[in-house]
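As the next step, I selected for study a record pairing a protein sequence with its backbone structure tokens, which the following lines show:
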Amino acid sequence: MKKNALYLVVAFILLFFIVLAVMLWRFSDVQFLPAAAIDFAKEKLDLNYSAKSGDDWYEQVAALNNKNSVLPATLMYIKLGQTAQVDEKPLIKYGLFISKCDSYSIFCLNRLAEQLGVAVTVVRKGDATQIVIAVENEADALKLVSNLKKLNIHSKIKEI
């Protein structure tokens, strides 16, 4: 009985696919013509391209002569021999130790660091997480720690 039921199911599936193929065949209206029946000599195809000069940038690029080179996507000027004057204050780096380092605490840390303008680097290696913050003075680091405590995230800082 089970073997006959299996044959019956396979037969219905096969019948379904045959009916589907016939319907798709009729829908597509495919007509097979021999390759020799198509005469390309009668067709007048213009394969020449003439670049139009226009106001758009892509029409101007199309009108350029081929010089076997690639047009740059971005333009960069580099001047060598200049010394840069940086007026930034030196940043003090602190290691931030969080008692429970989960995704919620990392989310809150990133949000608070963005609000306070503190640079944060989070490095995860397996279960261990190392967090480094760079601030101008210790008061900014303590402000970050106090704001984390308001969110019930207990943390400590240590200068690196």
Remarks:
- The first helix runs from residue 2 to 28.
- The longest strand covers residues 128-135.
- The beta strands are 92-98, 119-125, 128-135, 155-159.
